[in-house]
Amino acid sequence: xxxxxxxxxxxxxxxxxxxxxxxxxxxxxxxxxxxxxxxxxxxxxxxxxxxxxxxxxxxxxxxxxxxxxxxxxxxxxxxxxxxxxxxxxxxxxxxxxxxxxxxxxxxx
Length: 108
What we know:
Blueprint: H1 11-22, H2 29-43, H3 48-57, H4 63-70, H5 74-83, H6 95-106
Helix pairs in contact: 3-4, 4-5
């Protein structure tokens, strides 16, 4: 089940979005916004490793999650982190991390 996301867009942008919908190019605003997000994420795929590294460095994600986000294998991500001088953490460092890892594992 997917969660809904609600955004507020400036009126000028809303008018432009509505032109695409009214012309029939998109069925509705949501379809246009989904397509725009897909294209944005595809365009910025090369930045995923940097995003993963930043989150890992801050301790917000595990090495496995960093590898998943980056689209790299576990060992490749580990190598990249070591190349950058980022120490590899072993296992959860806090009770909160352990809980998050447990919840993530349940979803698999």
